Amino acid sequence: MATNLDQFLSRVDALLDRVEPWLPEPTATDWDAIAWRWRKDGPQGHRGRGRLEPIRRPHRLRLEDLRGIDRQRAEIDRNTRQFLAGDGANNVLLSGSRGTGKSSLIKALLNRYQAQGLRLIEVDKDELIDLPRIIEQIEDRPERFILYCDDLSFEASESSYKALKAALDGSLSAPPENLLIYATSNRRHLLPEYQRENQEARMIDAEIHQGEGVEEKISLSDRFGLWLSFHPFSQAQYLEVVRHWLGQLGADGAEHQGTALAAAAESAALQWALRRGSRSGRTAWQFARDWAGRQRLSHR
Questions:
Q1: How far is C-alpha 246 from the geometric centre of its chain's CA atoms?
Q2: Of 73, 153, 242, 298, which has the maximum CB count within 10 A?
Q3: What does R_g of the chain's alpha carbons equal in angstroms?
Q4: How far apart are the first and last CA of the chain?
Q5: C-alpha neighbours within 13 Å on the C-beta side of residue 217
Q6: Residues 6+ positions from 27 with CB-CB distance below 8 Å
Q7: For the CA atoms of 94, 96, 97, 98, what is the dihedral angle to 10 degrees?
Q8: Could you read off the pLDDT tens digit of each residue along the chain, which spans 300 residues?
Q9: Alpha helix (H) residue ranges in the chain
Q10: 8 Å CB contact between 114 and 144
Q11: Taking a C-beta distance cutoff of 8 angstroms, is the pair 242, 284 a contact?
Q12: Predicted TM-score (pTM) of this structure
């Protein structure tokens, strides 16, 4: 049954390939936008046309609002400034705990540097096979583009990561000077790791040599020149972020540590994090928004 279905889908895909030259040309890219998503027309997995769909309301995050990740913020900011200046810069992999600011950093970079020509293209991992088509559209543009892959990870059975490997550093064609790839992931090596793979390691001349399975997984993340790791916040870091967001949202008592109101807010923030099972910047923002909203409602 599965074989018949695969044959049918292959025939449909071949038919679409024949029809594609007669399809209307895709809408011209709106280069006045500052951010886009790559969208495919037609069935998922078909090699049909794609387009850069403008994002009309990008997030307006500020780098200075991202607390508790000072080292990571400084590193990616420096790398991005080098990229904008036409100097040496690296593709970046941001990996680690959820909600710690990985995606927010990239969005905040766009907000800060859009006036200097920085642009952002969001690509889903299932569309990475289209990287050559995306590059064709932007390689002659004067802007500087960050291709952004959020929550990137691959299962062992997937092969689409090969397109990413080629785009990073595995193709005969050199990547364009106006493009970098910034990816976020909860997995350090982007692929699942199994205990049995560690058993393939061997000692040769007192050095540890990983097995082929581990080497294949490392080979993808190794193509990112800059690695930034993110870890769960301590209680002190979490409360610092809570106080910052309460102040930004104008909540009463946010900047007055030691008062009864501030103590009540911190106690509620810790309980909020305990229920969520996470102390992170995302959790702090969600609590602050809820706390400030409750205050405003009670004052009406």
A1: 26
A2: 242
A3: 23
A4: 63
A5: 19
A6: 51
A7: 40
A8: 546 655 665 665 666 556 555 555 556 889 999 999 998 865 544 455 788 999 999 988 999 999 999 999 999 999 999 999 998 899 999 988 888 899 999 999 999 999 999 999 999 888 888 888 899 999 999 999 999 999 887 665 565 666 676 777 655 567 789 999 999 987 766 665 544 544 454 555 555 444 445 455 566 677 888 999 998 899 999 999 999 999 999 887 666 565 777 888 999 999 999 998 889 999 999 999 999 999 888 877
A9: 2-19, 70-84, 102-113, 131-138, 161-169, 195-198, 212-221, 235-248, 260-276, 281-298
A10: no
A11: yes
A12: 0.78
What angle in degrees, to the nearest 10, is found between the helix axes of 281-298 and 235-248? Answer: 40
Residue 70: which of 185, 230, 212, 223 has the closest Cα? Answer: 230
Residue 85: partners with Cβ closer than 8 Å, 6 or more residues away: none
Q: Which residue has the tokens 């929550």?
A: 151
Tokens of 281: 């910047």
Q: How buried is 31 (Cβ within 10 angstroms: 0-12 exposed, 13-18 middle, 19+ buried)?
A: middle
List the beta bridge partners of residue 202: 209
Instruction: Supply 2's token pair.
Output: 């599965």
* CA torsion through residues 164, 170, 171, 173, sign: positive
Torsional class of 213: left (φ above 0), alpha (ψ -120 to 50), beta (otherwise): alpha
φ and ψ at 84, to 5 degrees?
-65, -30
Amino acid making up residue 222:
D
Q: Is the dihedral of CA 160, 164, 167, 171 positive or negative?
A: negative
Residue 162 C-alpha from the chain's centroid:
18
**Measured between alpha carbons, how far is 105 from 215 in angstroms, rounded to an integer?**
29
